[in-house]
Task: inverse folding
């Protein structure tokens, strides 16, 4: 494998990691506040559909982005209503949301575009275009680091850079602001937060709303950045991989970056080499596809560094017990 | 929250949830420019209006009884087994191995062997998540989700690289040998003189499903294990205090649950396709969640809600065939049923309580 191939794989890894990173951070906000969210997949799918549909109809990718976020937020609202206001089972609500998105996107897509559940392909301003970072051309002449900068870091769509910036932003919000402290507290011990006179319900709704925005970005990137249209079931399990990455990252923002980059790299490698020949053993493509899930189970089993979820995760908060 | 009478809790609340789900779905049909009443009529007549429709409705219902029971058994122990999809897929592998490689003299023996294989494979696929939950505290929901994906990859590998006959293109096994053919409902009923459409996939597995309902009823309410399982589900500390071993209960419950999900394979793999194809479970594992929620985790409830979902699936297929409404409408209805009878259960209960409980107080 030569240097250029390696760079191409890294470049595609970064692209593929972006939706995972958005979704993983989305889950991070929600779960750190004590709301389990297995509906990341559904929210991404909904956002992907509405962003593609709106971008196509208006010709503006920005309106598409807003519509995608709105679509994802509606599902977030349902999740909040079920798991915060009515103290229902958060996991069941997540399952319902995934199915709702999977059914609605096809139902609406067929009725609007009559293309078997797809949207027409997007072009021009209806898509996010690649941005060349400054001096990318000039850097090509610098050995080793130059091509790395020009091939891997430069030339992505805006949302890729936004996703990368979301990591320090999430870290700052969670660990350096009052809101973040309260958000983490509400996921560990909501009764203590309540005693301090801070609204548990308000905080949790805020977390679920942030989760909705980030899932919206993830979905919009899938349909208008990575791809060029909405395709039925286009999230293809990415929401669950993001969930796996979240556990892998032990609910921490910087670890989330490395976990999603790792999973992105796995996907990029398995795209490029359907069956990976390691010399002594040939790994079938199916193994590469299952690897993120297998790794997550190993991590969950606690054999390689224990992952401890937020303490109050999954439990509805009941005042005055 | 006001206490509802038991009958209201068991019957009225899920029914109201179901009605809400239907009203919303029909509004969506209206919004996409179709007549909801026409759609509903087509669905009902397509699913229940002929023995042909019934043949499919009962076939789907058989699948959903198994997966619904699987979810319900786990629910009783407060475990959420979301891995029915993977367990049923592995059950399919068990059935395929038994049917392909052992020459059976008669279908009855083949059925017994396939039932055992499907159950064992399903149970084993649930064993690892169960062990991890019981011993290492890994969340069962996440591990079972992961195991669904791992099962899909595993099956893909086995079908493409091992079991696919030479020269075949699609990832599937060869057709099972003739003696393992299960008699279809049409063949059975016609032989006793009752006219029933031939060529529909409902088969003798339906009886196995009914037996599974009885088995689960006895297990949960009439055995010591069932008592321990329910006690564990109500309160883990209390169960442990009463001498119930939490590790044992978690593992046994999940294995029974996995076995029930795996049993689905004798219906769809052995009864219908008569070979193992990739993705043969078709989401039935997830529908089990809706079925169990709607049926309040009771075998009788599950029987009825499985029938309802079976009819929905067949009706949805008819819709997709004759109108421009896609069969994905069924997924929307299914999602709304899960939402209203599961996640928003408390909201529906509050609504029912407002109607039922308040007037009674005024009288008193």
Result:
């Amino acid at each position: 494998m030569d240097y250029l191939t390696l760079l191409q794989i890294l470049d595609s890894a970064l692209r593929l990691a972006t939706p995972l990173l958005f979704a993983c951070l989305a889950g991070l906000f929600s779960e750190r506040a004590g709301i389990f969210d297995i509906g990341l997949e559904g929210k991404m799918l909904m956002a992907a559909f509405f962003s593609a549909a709106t971008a196509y109809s208006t010709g503006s990718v920005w309106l598409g982005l807003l519509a995608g976020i709105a679509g994802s937020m509606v599902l977030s609202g349902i999740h909040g209503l079920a798991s915060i206001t009515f103290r229902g089972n958060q996991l069941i609500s997540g399952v319902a949301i995934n199915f709702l998105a999977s059914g609605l996107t096809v139902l609406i897509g067929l009725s609007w575009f009559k293309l078997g559940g797809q949207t027409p392909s997007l072009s021009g301003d209806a898509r996010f275009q690649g941005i060349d970072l400054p001096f990318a051309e000039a850097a090509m002449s610098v050995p080793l680091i130059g091509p790395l900068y020009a091939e891997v870091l430069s030339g992505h769509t805006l949302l890729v850079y936004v996703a990368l910036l979301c990591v320090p932003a999430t870290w700052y919000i969670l660990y350096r602001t009052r809101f973040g402290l309260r958000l983490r507290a509400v996921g560990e011990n909501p009764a203590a937060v309540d005693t301090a006179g801070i609204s548990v319900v308000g905080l949790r709704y805020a977390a679920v709303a942030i989760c909705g925005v980030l899932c919206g970005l993830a979905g919009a990137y899938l349909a208008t950045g990575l791809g060029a249209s909405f395709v039925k079931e286009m999230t293809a399990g990415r929401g669950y991989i993001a969930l796996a990455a979240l556990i892998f990252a032990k609910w921490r923002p910087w670890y989330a970056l490395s976990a999603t980059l790792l999973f992105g790299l796995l996907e990029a490698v398995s795209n490029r080499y359907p069956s990976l020949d390691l010399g002594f053993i040939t790994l079938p493509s199916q193994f590469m596809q299952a690897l993120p899930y297998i790794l997550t189970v190993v991590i969950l089993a606690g054999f390689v560094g224990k992952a401890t979820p937020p303490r109050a995760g999954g439990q509805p908060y009941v005042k005055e017990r | 929250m006001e206490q509802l009478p038991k009958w209201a809790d068991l019957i009225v609340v899920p029914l109201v949830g179901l009605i809400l789900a239907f009203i919303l779905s029909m509004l969506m049909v209206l919004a996409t420019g179709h007549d909801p009443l026409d759609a509903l009529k087509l669905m009902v007549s397509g699913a229940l209006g002929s023995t042909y429709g019934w043949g499919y409705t009962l076939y789907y219902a058989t699948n959903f009884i198994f997966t619904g029971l699987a979810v319900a058994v786990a629910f009783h122990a407060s475990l959420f087994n979301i891995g029915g999809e993977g367990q049923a897929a592995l059950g399919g592998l068990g059935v395929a191995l038994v049917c392909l490689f052992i020459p059976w003299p008669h279908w009855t023996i083949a059925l017994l062997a396939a039932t055992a294989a499907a159950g064992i494979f399903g149970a084993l696929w649930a064993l690892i998540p169960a062990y991890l939950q019981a011993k290492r505290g890994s969340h069962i929901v996440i591990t079972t989700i992961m195991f669904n994906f791992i099962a899909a990859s595993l099956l893909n590998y086995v079908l493409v690289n091992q079991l696919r006959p030479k020269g075949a293109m699609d990832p599937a096994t060869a057709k099972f040998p003739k003696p393992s053919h299960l008699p279809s409902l049409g063949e059975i009923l016609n032989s006793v003189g009752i006219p029933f459409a031939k060529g529909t996939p409902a088969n003798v597995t339906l009886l196995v499903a009914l037996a599974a309902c009885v088995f689960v009823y006895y297990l949960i309410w009439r055995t010591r294990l069932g008592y321990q399982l329910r006690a564990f589900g109500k309160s883990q500390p209390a169960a442990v205090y009463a001498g119930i071993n939490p590790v044992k209960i978690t593992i046994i419950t999940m294995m029974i649950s996995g076995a029930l999900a795996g049993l689905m394979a004798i219906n769809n793999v052995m009864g219908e396709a008569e070979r193992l194809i990739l993705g043969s479970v078709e989401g039935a594992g997830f529908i089990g969640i809706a079925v169990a929620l709607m049926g309040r985790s009771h075998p009788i409830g599950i029987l009825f809600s499985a029938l309802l979902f079976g009819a929905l699936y067949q009706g949805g297929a008819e819709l997709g065939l004759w109108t421009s409404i896609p069969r994905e409408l069924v997924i929307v209805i299914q999602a709304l049923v899960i939402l209203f009878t599961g996640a928003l259960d408390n909201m529906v209960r509050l609504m029912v309580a407002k109607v039922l409980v308040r007037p009674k107080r005024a009288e008193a």
About this structure: The first strand of chain A starts at residue 276 and ends at 277. Residues 42 and 98 of chain A are 4 Å apart (CA to CA). Chain A touches chain B through 47 residues (CB under 8 Å). Chain A has a mean pLDDT of 88.
